[in-house]
Design a protein that fits this description.
The chain is mainly beta and 236 residues long. The chain has two domains: 1-54 and 61-120, UDP N-Acetylglucosamine Acyltransferase, domain 1 (3 Solenoid), CATH 2.160.10.10; 132-236, UDP N-Acetylglucosamine Acyltransferase, domain 1 (3 Solenoid). The protein has strands at 2-5, 11-14, 24-25, 30-31, 36-37, 42-43, 48-51, 70-71, 76-77, 82-84, 88-89, 94-95, 100-101, 106-107, 112-113, 118-119, 124-125, 130-131, 136-137, 142-143, 148-149, 154-155, 174-175, 180-181, 186-187, 192-193, 198-199, 204-205, 213-216, 221-225. It has an eleven-stranded mixed beta sheet with strand order 3-6-9-12-15-18-21-24-27-29-30, with no helix packed on it. An eight-stranded mixed beta sheet has the order 1-2-4-7-10-13-16-19, with no helix packed on it. An eight-stranded parallel beta sheet has the order 5-8-11-14-17-20-23-26, with no helix packed on it. The chain is globular, with a radius of gyration of 19 Å. The chain starts with a strand and ends in an 11-residue tail after the last strand.
Length: 236
């Protein structure tokens, strides 16, 4: 049940929602029941936080009600973004304009999900991750610390595209620490991108990528290794 609040224009609050005085609110924000919002968080115009998941009749996602959404201290949910209940945004995290973050997903401290990107259910995103505009992180993916995902990257988790039995296990991508994924790259289900690896723009990755490998093409092939001068430690 949502109720109007005079704290900000058009603000709707669910039961049990308490907002610290330091929270910055735009217009027409909706915060659903039980959502936890940390000090100095920013919820911009039209943000929706704690929205109950809506599952299709053929969805195999968990049916148990997820816990409340948590927006950490100094985190930002930008204009028109939706954060579903059960999602957690750590302190300093940013969910960009019109992005969508589903249930049981966690976004680590200082990480950014870019404008219009979709992060599916049961995704784990580490710290200082940068996910750019219009990306899709499929369910059950893991993104370790300091990963860069360029605009338009697509990950997938179902080789058979639903033509399998009910016990089939979906497998998202595993992006190891500090790897970089170029614009419009596609990762097939279950691939692992090694630590500090580099996947070029437009590549289609169909098998695991070794650490520090530079991958190009369709299908992607290793063309060289990331040099010592290009490793993350040299750029901190």
């Amino acid at each position: 049940m949502l109720r109007s609040s005079d704290r900000a224009p058009g603000l709707l609050l669910g039961e049990g929602v308490e907002l610290p005085d330091s929270v910055e609110l735009g217009g027409n924000v909706v915060i659903h029941t039980g959502t936890v919002v940390g000090a100095a968080a920013r919820l911009q115009d039209g943000a929706v936080v704690g929205k109950p998941p809506a599952l299709g009749p053929q969805s195999r996602a968990l049916r148990e009600p997820p816990p409340p959404a948590v927006i950490g201290e100094r985190a930002t949910v930008c204009a028109g973004a939706v954060v579903v209940c059960g999602a957690r945004v750590a302190p300093g995290g940013v969910v960009g304009d019109q992005a969508h973050v589903r249930e049981r997903t966690s976004i680590g401290e200082g990480s950014v999900v870019g404008r219009g990107s979709a992060v599916d259910n049961d995704v784990t995103i580490g710290e200082r991750v940068r996910i750019q505009t219009n990306c899709y992180l499929t369910a059950f993916s893991v993104v370790e610390d300091d990963v860069f995902v360029a605009p338009g990257v697509t990950t997938t988790n179902d080789h058979a595209m639903t033509r399998h039995g009910p016990d089939h296990r979906l497998r998202g991508a595993l992006l190891r620490r500090a790897c970089r994924i170029g614009g419009a790259a596609v990762l097939v289900p279950g691939v692992e991108i090694g630590e500090e690896a580099f996947v070029a723009a437009g590549a289609v990755v169909v098998r695991d990528v070794p650490a520090r490998a530079v991958m190009m093409g369709v299908p992607a092939r290793q063309v060289r290794e990331v040099p010592d001068s290009d490793l993350l430690e040299r750029w901190r």
